[in-house]
Design brief:
Elements (H helix, E strand, L loop, with lengths): L8 E9 L4 H16 L4 E10 L2 E8 L2 H8 L2 H10 L3 E9 L15 H26 L5 H32 L11
Antiparallel strand pairs: 1-3, 1-4, 2-3
Helix pairs in contact: 1-3, 4-5
Length: about 180
């Protein structure tokens, strides 16, 4: 007989998906949700698309023991291992009502990784823009040559480079030393 006093359980599976692997992730998410529906005590699931390439699947179970059994079961572990081929993940579980999770987000990116990826993207653009401006505005003082260079570089960064760079590198930026997603 089920323990009516046992607290409910919630599992959240967060994934940073490699660029280009979105279709694989969607198939995997469908499989994970089917596995949860087959588990004892399953109540429901929610898929949250936080930002492009970062998603969370939230599963609710009648009891903490049901959630724990599903999360520690062979089917969940096999699916999580399969997802590691195209995403970095973090699986969390809590008991009770309400529950609070710290979700991985872009602010958790490792600083040196963000620096390296940004520098690699900015350097060639900066070199090209500054070379063209020095040629076009050769007679002007360096500060006046830098004015249009800085405006062009800032615009290209804001609307072209950084959105693509973030999508391409998020999978790597948010990983800790063990390959799991960071939350802070």
């Amino acid at each position: 007989m089920p323990d009516r006093d046992a607290p409910p359980g919630t599992v959240i599976a967060s994934r940073a998906i490699q660029a280009g692997a979105e279709a694989r992730f969607e198939r995997w998410a469908d499989e994970l949700q089917a596995a949860a529906r087959d588990a004892a005590g399953y109540l429901g699931a929610i898929q949250l698309r936080q930002t492009q390439g970062l998603q969370h699947l939230v599963f609710r179970f009648e009891r903490e023991t049901d959630a724990r059994a599903w999360r520690e079961g062979d089917r969940f572990r096999a699916l999580a291992a399969a997802a590691d081929d195209f995403s970095a993940g973090l699986d969390q579980m809590q008991a009770g009502d309400p529950v609070r999770f710290e979700a991985p987000n872009d602010n958790a990116a490792v600083g040196w990784k963000r620096f390296v990826t940004t520098w690699i993207a900015v350097f060639p653009v900066l070199l090209a823009i500054s070379s063209v401006m020095r040629w076009l505005l050769a007679g002007l003082p360096p500060a006046l040559q830098l004015l249009p260079s800085s405006l062009i570089l800032t615009a290209v960064l804001q609307w072209v480079i950084l959105p693509r760079l973030q999508r391409w590198s998020r999978f790597w930026l948010l990983q800790d030393g063990d390959g799991k997603l960071r939350t802070n």
